[in-house]
Amino acid sequence: MFERSRGGENALLIQPHAGGPPADGVLEEFSELARSAGARVLAVLPARIDKPNPSILIGSGKLEEVKAACDAVGADLVLINHALSPIQERNLEKALERRVVDRTGLILDIFAQRARSHEGKLQVELAQLRHMATRLVRGWTHLERQRGGAIGLRGPGETQLETDRRLLQKRVEMLQKRLEKVEVQHTQMRRARVRSELPRVALVGYTNAGKSTLFNALTGADAYAADQLFATLDPTVRRIELAGGGVVLADTVGFVRDLPHELVAAFRSTLSEAREADLLLHVIDADDPLRDERMAQVDAVLQEIGAGDIPQLLVFNKIDRIEGALARIDSRGEDQQAVWLSARDGAGLELLREALGERLGLRRVAGEIILPTDAGRLRARLHALDAIRSETHDGDGWQLQVDLPLIDATRLAAQSDGAPLRPLLPAAEPAHPVESPA
């Protein structure tokens, strides 16, 4: 019986497809995923599958071709750009005598390498264990050995497989409890940000579109950014100052074609930054020939996680790679704008800041207000917002010179009786006159 190898980085890639040749960009993306996981791609074999074989996915003839190709190039790992059932994975490993990893397992491996925070590591491990739970029936010989027989081990004869299943389930339950505690902490932090009344903006987009580079350029942070798929997994949140006031900006995990559902479920707290945002910055690689397809795939994932209805501002990044391209803002429909920029060179960043302020309603208002002596709480809120430029006090109250974002003035007016702040607010639109009956 085949004993499953735990080594192997020399990979042969199999790209299943139905009918015609594989879609544009699929092979390149899968090869990049393999390299991101640390594999050395030796060869790529397309495999036409009109009807998947329930036992080995591909046909028996193609299986022989794959084994011969592995022997010829010296591959000790086979990566398949398709989801495999546990039986298919087991049978392929026995027939090829090499490790076989499907698309989900490959992405999980990349995530395991990239996770840095405590929460990210817990999420990755939970996703891996859930994926592994259906794959314990393996070619591993130790899983068939029985306990019992030796001194101190005699008993009901529990198999190693049953032991592993029981231990795995306990580990899953423990990870779920830990993640629930972390989620409570993150929920409290998000509530604190909501109470601070700062608009929330989340960066979303296809992996490797340059989100982390743009995040660093806007915030001055040092989030890890590299030209590789899934360079960062853990959400990073920073406050940035625009002309009209502060904004909370969050960097999120990149999306990818056919993102495994195990990962969408495991990274719920990461993706919640997108679900709870007031505005999404949809970052797009402007130089990508498949950018329209990538945009559609990101929108599909946003719908899946419940963020499909949140307004978007499109950001076409990497214009430095397009000859003659200039930073600009253009309109794409009635209620959608697009900013063309280069996060690496800094071209167009000010245009993005202006567009952000406009979309979030961050106009500023300034003027003089008079607060009565019983409005101490409103005065304290104005001080907390650093909105008071000067003030004088007499027996009747305070005379203040203020300058603050319109969105803050509107919220303060809604939370109080509104009278002192009303002169600062724009006049309401006049109502349409009602014609009197003849």
TrEMBL record:
Gene Ontology MF: a single term: hydrolase activity
Keywords for the protein's UniProt record, in alphabetical order: Coiled coil, Cytoplasm, GTP-binding, Hydrolase, Magnesium, Metal-binding, Nucleotide-binding
Coiled-coil ranges (or none): 158-192
Top-level taxon of origin: Bacteria
Family: Belongs to the TRAFAC class OBG-HflX-like GTPase superfamily. HflX GTPase family.
Known partners and oligomeric status: Monomer. Associates with the 50S ribosomal subunit.
Protein name: GTPase HflX
Species the sequence originates in: Thermomonas beijingensis
The gene coding this protein: hflX
